[in-house]
Design brief:
Its main location: secreted. With 369 residues, this protein is mainly α. It folds into 2 domains: 170 residues, Peroxidase, domain 1 (Orthogonal Bundle), CATH 1.10.520; 169 residues, Peroxidase, domain 2 (Orthogonal Bundle). The protein contains 15 helices and 2 strands. Strands 1-2 form a two-stranded antiparallel ribbon. Helix 3 packs antiparallel against helix 5 and helix 12 packs across helix 14. The two termini are 36 Å apart. Bound molecules: protoporphyrin IX containing FE and calcium ion (CA). The site of protoporphyrin IX containing FE has 24 residues, from helix 4 and strand 1.
Length: 369
Amino acid sequence: ETKNSLQTARLPPPDSSSIFSRRLSLSANFGDSRSLEYDFYRNSCPPAEQIIRTMIRRLYEVRPNVAPALLRLVFHDCFIEGCDASVLLDAVNGVRSEKDSPPNETLKGFDIIDSIKAELEAACPGIVSCADILVLAAREVVVLAGGPFYPLDTGRRDSSRAFADAATYGIPSPDEELRTTLASFASRGFNEKETVSLLGAHSIGVVHCKFFLDRLYNFHGTNRPDPSLDSGFLELMRSRCNNSHRTAPPESPISFNIQPPFSFDGLPLPSFNSSLPSSPEEPGMIMDYDGLRSNFGTLYYRSLLQGRGILYADQQLMAKEGTESWVRAYASENTLFRRDFAITMMKLSNLQVLIAPLGLVRLNCSKVG
Ligand code: HEM
Ligand SMILES: [Ca+2]
């Protein structure tokens, strides 16, 4: 299965950019033998995967929000020129980083990757790529958050540059219509079903008010809320995010209105206080649909059935029969969802990977040299 998804993932998307074609033709020169391998570090750094697992588990105990942070981070890396750790690079000498692009402004978890990298550099200097660390760390947090385990091949190499423009235009927008979202995923090889299952990642984490304020107060410039929103849920969201969050500068004390976390279905919440937005000036909604962590995914899809998706792009999954039927299926069959989510996470983690001699192993994940 890994092999198949890797091959699919290596097909050029319809809108393939020149950099992508360059990579593809270069790797094609070496034939098909160059691909990721199961346990790539078995000789060069045997404890690599165990180190990552142990560190993530320890971190998760004190900071459970590492789970959503890293799950989102791997998506934002792999979606832009593949899983090459390009998203981790800092700006240098006026060359913009992906971190600075608007869709990435609220990304978190860079420090976690850095500390894992430091540990791995101490154990096996110059061996384990940042790109592999990121996908492996994301796999661990999915399991900790109650999601499925999935096997991953390794041997990804890191990019030597960031793709700031590609990140600005290539990360899907939360306000997008369904067809645009589907086209964006299709261009990376994900069909409708796979797109619906990947969005199950929105079972955990936080959404800041600015990403859905328009839905609450001025949907598509109508001065009215989004009609697809359940009315009770609209009130709940408005109580979290008032209209002033639209214009208030981030440091404005006016925005201080965080309330205790709650669960959408009245389920008891675990102590997830640290998944509150990082600063009190940035209120938002907790996507902790899976209060008991036993059913990762189920409550996300059920909430879409009830018109309770937080982002417009989430709720849009109900706008078309093809995607709606998958929302229904995943809302009622958690085993099916877990299987499909595992497969699509493997596919996401294998997008456009760089294999030696392409790319490099960065010694510091946020710098090239
Ligand atoms: C149409 C596609 C998607 C859109 C428009 C979208 C948009 C967003 C937005 C706006 C946020 C809130 C960020 C914030 O408030 O700081 C968010 C959070 C998140 N997204 Fe997505 N996303 C999409 C797909 C995905 C996928 C495919 C994954 C992973 C496989 C993912 C994982 C996450 C996670 C885990 C969070 C919570 C982050 C945290 O709490 O730190 N998203 N997403
Ligand atoms: Ca990337």
